[in-house]
Amino acid sequence: MSHGLVDPYRPEESVFECLECHHRLVSEEHVGACPVCGGATKNIAVARE
Ligand SMILES: [Zn+2]
């Protein structure tokens, strides 16, 4: 049980934002539709080297 190393931008996860309502969600898989409004989403994750 350790917390303090929680990084919301882990490289295996991507951040998606709904183009319609701007709801954001983090998923390891491609998200094709917003869970809130069903709108299209885009991947807004920033690649970090
Ligand atoms: Zn939406």
From TrEMBL:
<dbReference type="InterPro" id="IPR055553">
    <property type="entry name" value="DUF7129"/>
</dbReference>
<feature type="domain" description="DUF7129">
    <location>
        <begin position="6"/>
        <end position="49"/>
    </location>
</feature>
<protein>
    <submittedName>
        <fullName>Rubrerythrin-like domain-containing protein</fullName>
    </submittedName>
</protein>
<dbReference type="Pfam" id="PF23455">
    <property type="entry name" value="DUF7129"/>
</dbReference>
